[in-house]
Amino acid sequence: MMKTILLTNxxxxxxxxxxxxxxxxxxxxxxxxxxxxxVLLDKAHLADYILASGRLKIDGEVLCRTVNLKMIQRTxxxxxxxxxxxxxxxxxxxxxxxxxxxDSVAEHALLLILACLRRLTVINxxxxxxxxxxxxxxxxxRTLCGRTVGILGMGNIGRAVAGLxxxxxxxxxxxxxxxxxxxxxxxxxxxxxxLQELFETAEIITxxxxxxxxxxxxxxxxxxxxxxxxxxxxxxxxxxxxCENDLVAAVKAGKIGFAALDVYEHEPLSNxxxxxxxxxxxxxxxxxxxxxxxxxxxxxxxxxxxxxxxxQLQEIEQYRLRIGGKK
Length: 327
What we know:
Layout: E1 3-7, H1 13-22, E2 27-31, H2 37-43, E3 49-52, H3 60-65, E4 71-74, H4 84-89, E5 94-95, H5 102-117, H6 120-128, H7 134-138, E6 148-152, H8 156-165, E7 171-175, H9 182-188, E8 190-192, H10 195-201, E9 204-207, H11 221-225, E10 231-235, H12 244-253, E11 256-261, H13 272-275, E12 280-282, H14 291-309
Parallel strand pairs: 1-2, 1-3, 3-4, 4-5, 6-7, 6-9, 7-8, 9-10, 10-11, 11-12
């Protein structure tokens, strides 16, 4: 009998073609007809495996609707859509794809940093509108070489960003709950500082930390007040790390010189004040979704599910999230 993988999202076109291309033999894919909680609840009973994708919450109510659920596989690494306590209580094994899209997100973060420094969106619009003031426009931009970049979170993505910054000659500082090893710091030429120093000294702040109770609203009017005037803020992590209203106010006041966001408090993006600002760059939560990263993410997720079904747990042990679930 074929096993059912319930994908908690809806894909069409190229993304769906990629998923179907890596679907293992002996499995069928069930997607949501519409991405909403009621549809997820209605289809939960079909799941032998849940492939958790997107922002719909996998909680106790969803899990109570399942009948034959063996395992939950997260397509990426973010856990804020998963009720870990409910999963633990029911003893359901949970697997993630640690680091699978780190390079993709890091490249996007670097792209946004450079776009902010060079005021790309503003100058692009000016040029298309016939404004040609080479010296004035050019001297309103900055180079990355010599700038102090503060990285909040030094996990897989944070380290990838730091590695990309090495050839640019930036001065990179970081804050993380857990300091990386001295060898890694030397290799990446990075320096660990406390949060206060990072806020006060970084000219560019790029966010790469998980969303937790401690980090929610980390960028707010109080933390912004500590920053240098004209600071650049880049967020490719989680939208709720930033209080958008405080960011908008700071951009309008000139405290924040430029901001670039790939994630938002509410998605899809609906904050009209944010989108109206010429010195705010917005992208649609796309940092980790290049063709290459999406293929690898789905390939690895399906591989984990297949190996779990075959009982080859030793092959996927490194992807297991330890929350107390039984094997």
